[in-house]
Amino acid sequence: MEVFAVLWREFIFFKRRFWKITTSAIMTPLLYLIAFGWGLGKDIVIEGATYMHFVIPGIIALSTMNTSFNAVAIRINISKLHEKSFEYYLTSPVNMNLLAFGHVLAGALRGMYAAFLIFLISFIFGIKIYVDFYFVLICFLNSFLFAAFGYGAALSIESHYDMSRFTTYVMTPMSFLCGTFFSLKNLPPVVKETIGILPLSHTSQSLRDIVLKGQFDHKSILVLLIYAIGFYFFGVGMSYKEMK
Amino acid sequence: MIEIIDVSKVFGEFTAVDNVNLKIESGEFLGLLGPNGAGKTTLIKLLTGLLKPTSGAIYIDGEKMSRSNMEIKKRIGVVPQYTNLDKELTVYENLIFAAKLFKIKGYKDKIEELLTFIELEEHKNKKAMNLSGGMQRRLMIAKALINDPDIIFLDEPTVGIDLNGRRKIWDILKGMKAIGKTVLLTTHYIEEADYLCNQVCLINNGKVFKKETPEKLKDDLGIYTVEYFDSEMKTRYEYFKDKNGAEKYILNTEYISYTIRKTTLEDVFYNFTNRKVV
After folding, report:
1. CA B107 → CA A4, A9, A91, B57, B93, distances in Å?
2. Which of A154, B207, B208, B272 is geometrically suited to a Cys-Cys bond with A73, CB 3.0 to 4.6 A?
3. In Å, how far from its chain's centre is CA B143?
4. Is A9 in contact with B86 (Cβ distance < 8 A)?
């Protein structure tokens, strides 16, 4: 089946680049933790918790987003534009839905690996965070939807340079605006409502609520699921667009 | 059998393939010859479902080719012009991945057989990125053969490959011919088509003009060629049915140097592409 074929190949890729993938997945969150957690936020209490406890769920949301998106977008981008191996799929008897699912699932698993690494680093920093089934589910949905977005984005572009548009105009603004480093409560209502629609806002808020309060708004699961399905079909649609 | 019926492909205002009609019989080894931009690659892409015809239809063994026709895709093999390998995977892993995509059961024996066929057994644990250009091409051919296809499309499989590498690929292609595969090959190398193909097709400006055996194409043009360098410092070519005619012609011609030789497929191609056939 296409899903297992892609997972098998991505596992080999992961195994072969284990240290490179691991160190690059650790680097950015580690810097955030040092700069925002230890440096800036050492004496800050926010929403009744230390800033470290406040920011870690946000960093997990951010890292799962970036890792999943990049894991899929870069692989597909290279496979389509550089290696030209994506075309091999198009001339093979593969089901595009399953092929997309395989890639997106592989990307989502890379996102989950990044979340696990942050959890581990936090533990080393002496921060224990509460994790339950919903925490894992939300991390997975966040990883899945951004992996799907990365899949569609990589297939929708015609040059390597176009990829930076998604990073500049979509990923970077979301990274900083969606309540990852600060509470959305202090923003003007219109801005807050607008940002609140974005998937990363739901993930940040839900993960933070689980860690700090042990409960969260279950509606966010539905929102993330809708985004995941929407982006998945965007990706599938883009694969068919490859056959002009 | 492949039937191309009234197929055109238009990109904006540019007609890449113009009302092509062509029939390729089972077991035929057809070479598609044409200059750059003639429409060879577009035609291959149409045949493999990568492009949708603007008009017309393609039938493979009676079934209409479309991007969603999985049954046809199971029976064809494609070697594109550029390398399409997973560079991070080894030779062996590339073939396993291809076998998994084609859902081939018990693929290990098939892979070993293919590795022997393309002479890459000793390199099977090398990453594709570390192979030479010729080896990468051979691996691409093996990938295209993983499903034991009846029909194989090769788009300039030896472009950029050195002579030794090209000869090895020719042997592989001759092997395919010997076991009766239907092969459609596009190439820039005329001697490649002459050496391998039992039928040759000439294509220019998206139109297919002739489909004949290489011998017939040479016969039609004249099996003897007078190639002479004239006082205007230009090389001229004249074609004759017999050697006497060629010799008589040169006696009545002003030249700086000349040669009388057998007509080659390259002469046919040159004559075709420079005569502006309409």
Report:
1. 15, 16, 19, 34, 12
2. A154
3. 17
4. yes
| B202 is a domain residue | yes
Do residues B134 and B248 both lie within one domain?
A: no
CA distance A27 to A33: 10
- Considering the domain architecture, whether residues B148 and B245 belong to the same structural domain is answered as no
Domain residue limits at B248: 223-262
Tell me if A200 sits within 8 A of A180, measured CB to CB: yes
Tens digit of each residue's pLDDT, chain B (278 residues): 899 999 999 999 999 999 999 999 999 999 998 888 889 999 999 999 889 999 999 999 999 998 888 999 999 999 998 888 988 899 999 999 999 999 998 899 999 999 998 889 999 999 999 999 889 999 999 999 999 999 999 998 888 788 888 888 888 889 888 888 999 999 878 888 888 999 999 888 899 888 899 999 999 999 999 999 988 888 999 999 999 999 898 888 888 889 999 999 888 888 887 754 33
ipTM for the predicted complex comes to: 0.85
Exposure letters A202-231 (e unless 16+ CB within 10 A, then b)? bbbbbbbbbbbeeebeeebbebbeebbeeb
Tell me, yes or no, whether B170 and B206 share the same domain: yes
Q: Which residues pair with B208 in a beta bridge?
A: B203
Contact B221, B196 (CB under 8 A): no
Q: Residues with Cβ < 8 Å from B158, sequence gap 6 or more?
A: B137, B165, B166, B169, B170, B187, B189, B192
B207 and B229 housed in the same domain? no
Round to whole Å and give the CA distance between B133 and B151.
24
Q: Smallest Cβ distance to B50: which of A4, A5, A243?
A: A243
Max intra-chain CA distance, chain A: 59
What is the pTM for the complete model shown? 0.86
Asked whether residue B187 falls in the same domain as residue B78, the answer is: yes
B147 to chain A: nearest residue by CA? A92
Burial of A235 (0-12, 13-18, 19+ CB in 10 A): buried
Q: B84 and A243 in contact by Cβ < 8 A?
A: no
Q: Do B200 and B129 share a structural domain? A: yes
DSSP state of A170: I
- Output the six-digit token pair for A142: 């966040």
d(CA A69, CA A119): 20
A4, A8, A92 ranked by CB distance to B102: nearest: A92
Q: Are residues B48 and B156 in the same domain?
A: yes
Alpha-carbon distance of A53 to A181, in angstroms, equals 11
Q: Tell me, yes or no, whether B49 lies in a domain.
A: yes
- Specify the DSSP class assigned to residue A37: I
Q: Which of residues 87-106 of B touch A (CB under 8 A)?
A: 87-89, 93, 96-98, 100-103
Contact present, A121 and A26 (Cβ < 8 Å): yes
Read off the tokens for A135.
Answer: 């925490």
Q: Could you tell me if B258 and B226 are in contact, meaning their C-beta atoms sit under 8 angstroms apart?
A: yes
